[in-house]
Amino acid sequence: MIGFRLAARRRFALGSDSSGRLLPWVVALLVYAAGLCGVGLIVLNDALRASEHTLAATLTLQVPAETSDARLETVLALLRQTPGIASVHLLEPAETARLLEPWLGSVPLDDLPVPRLIDLRADPNAEPDLAMLRQHLASVVPDSRLDDHRLWPQEMRAAARRIEGVLAAGITIALLLIAAAAVVAARTAVMADRSVSELLHLLGAADFDIAGGLAVRSLGRGLLGGVIGAIAALLTILALGGAGSVVQLPAPIAVSGAADWRVWGILSAFVPAAGLIAMASAWVAVRRRLAAMP
Question: What is the CATH class of 65-143?
C-alpha cells in the first residue's frame, strides 16, 4: 500500500514542465536578501555593544585654542579635584590630528583654530555633578564645552531599534514572497496540467497524492534556491569583509565574516526554511485548487 502511494505520487506529479523552473532563482534572490538582513542585525548589535562599552564613561572637554597655558593648567587642576572624575588626559596636537584625519585628511593643524581636547573618564561608582562642573569651568574658561558621551548610547540604541525593525521587516517580507512565489508556481503548474489534474480528480485520485508530488518538487526547488542564495550572501559578506579592512571608518562597525558562527547559523537556517515554506505553500495552493474542482 505504501509503495503504491509513493508510486502514485510520482505518477501524479504536476509541474514537471518549465512552469516552476524559475522558482529556485526567485527563492535564491529572496534568501540572499534575507541573509544579508540577518547578518546586518548581527553587525548592528555588535556595533551598538562596542559603542556602549567605549562611551559608557567618556567625557570630552573642548577648550578654545587661544586659551593660555595658565588657564589650561587651572582647568586640569579643577578637573582632577572634581569628585567622580577618575582620569584626566590632555590630548597632544598629534593625537588631535589623528582624530581629525578621517574628516580633514593630513592637514597641519597649526594654521587652524582647533580647540584643545581633554579626555575625561568618569568613575562608574561615583556620578560627577556635571552642572556644577560646567559652572566652574565657565568661570575659568567661558567658551569651554563639556560633552557627555554617555548620552550617545541611548540615542544610538533608539536609532538601532528602528534599523532593526526595518531589517526584521525585510526578512519577513522575503519569506512571505517565497511563499507567494511557490503559490504562483503551483497554480501555474496545475493550470498547465489542468486536463490531467481534472481527469485524475474525476477518476477518484486522492488530492493528497495529486498535491504531494508537486509539494515535494517545490521542496527540492526551494532548497536549491536557498543554497544558491546562502552561498551568494556568504560570498558578499566575504567581499565586504575584505573591503572593510581597507576602508577605515571612524565608527566601531565591523563586517562579520565567515569565522563568525552566527553568520553560518543564520544562512543555514534560511535554506531549510525556504524549502519548507515553498513546500507548504505549494501544498495548500494545490489542495485548494483541487477542492474547487467538480
Answer: alpha beta
